[in-house]
């Protein structure tokens, strides 16, 4: 089994390291043709407008939609969550538009712009060490979306079938439990 990390911008090396800790193989995805080699794809944090722009430039939009249509698993963290969402609250055009969620960018107030916390997540025995950096919030979810965690009543982890998202960065700590959860999702699909 092989997991790809979209390597257009953002925390790519950290995700690769976290996936490898689960025992699965991980590669950086720089060309859409590489999607054929992988079973699951992580879209990292960074800056969603930039990632969206680069995805359009390098022809990733349709390629990733096709990847998803095959039922292959996707995991978006922070900006990656925004890129996967069907609705962006500011009225900005969506990017991949694959997950039935509404997101608000940079939604945590100023003094909470960046912080770390231990976050209980449905389906995991231990809380996840979560790093929030100018993080987005999920403001609303469609009926088929499962909310996996909230922080101060705001939705920060969710799953819709084969798509998993987190508002925070799970790859910036030594805790790889959410990556393990994703690898298990990919394994079940395979
Ligand atoms: N604030 C960024 C955005 O709106 C996301 C931040 C992140 O990925 N750490 O795209």
UniProtKB/TrEMBL annotation:
Pathway: Cofactor biosynthesis; pyridoxal 5'-phosphate biosynthesis
InterPro entries: Class_I_gatase-like, PdxT/SNO, PdxT/SNO_CS
Transmembrane residue ranges: none
Known catalytic reactions: L-glutamine + H2O = L-glutamate + NH4(+); aldehydo-D-ribose 5-phosphate + D-glyceraldehyde 3-phosphate + L-glutamine = pyridoxal 5'-phosphate + L-glutamate + phosphate + 3 H2O + H(+)
Origin superkingdom: Bacteria
Positions annotated as active site in the UniProt record: 78 (nucleophile), 169 (charge relay system), 171 (charge relay system)
Pfam families, alphabetized: SNO
Residues binding L-glutamine: 46-48, 105, 133-134
SUPFAM superfamilies the record matches: Class I glutamine amidotransferase-like
Enzyme Commission number, as recorded: 4.3.3.6, 3.5.1.2
Annotated GO MF terms: pyridoxal 5'-phosphate synthase (glutamine hydrolysing) activity
Keywords: Glutamine amidotransferase, Hydrolase, Lyase, Pyridoxal phosphate
HAMAP family membership: PdxT
Record family assignment: Belongs to the glutaminase PdxT/SNO family.
Self-association and partners: In the presence of PdxS, forms a dodecamer of heterodimers. Only shows activity in the heterodimer.
Function field: Catalyzes the hydrolysis of glutamine to glutamate and ammonia as part of the biosynthesis of pyridoxal 5'-phosphate. The resulting ammonia molecule is channeled to the active site of PdxS.
Cited PANTHER family: PYRIDOXAL 5'-PHOSPHATE SYNTHASE SUBUNIT SNO, PYRIDOXAL 5'-PHOSPHATE SYNTHASE SUBUNIT SNO1-RELATED
Protein name: Pyridoxal 5'-phosphate synthase subunit PdxT
Source organism of the structure: Paenibacillus shirakamiensis
């Amino acid at each position: 089994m092989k997991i790809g990390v979209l390597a257009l911008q953002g925390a790519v090396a950290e995700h690769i390291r976290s996936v490898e800790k689960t025992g699965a193989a991980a590669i950086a995805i720089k060309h859409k043709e590489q999607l054929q080699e992988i079973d699951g794809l992580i879209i990292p944090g960074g800056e969603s407008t930039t990632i969206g722009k680069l995805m359009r430039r390098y022809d990733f939009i349709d390629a990733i939609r096709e990847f998803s249509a095959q039922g292959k698993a996707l995991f978006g963290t922070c900006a990656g969550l925004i890129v996967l969402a069907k609705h962006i609250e500011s009225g900005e055009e969506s990017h991949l538009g694959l997950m039935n969620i509404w997101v608000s960018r940079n939604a945590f107030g100023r003094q909470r712009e960046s912080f770390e916390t231990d976050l209980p997540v449905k389906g995991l025995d231990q809380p996840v060490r979560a790093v929030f950096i100018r993080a987005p919030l999920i403001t609303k979810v469609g009926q088929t979306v499962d909310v996996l965690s909230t922080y101060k009543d705001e939705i920060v982890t969710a799953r819709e079938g084969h798509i998993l998202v987190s508002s925070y960065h799970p790859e910036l700590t030594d805790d790889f439990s959410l990556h393990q959860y994703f690898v298990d999702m990919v394994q079940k699909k395979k």
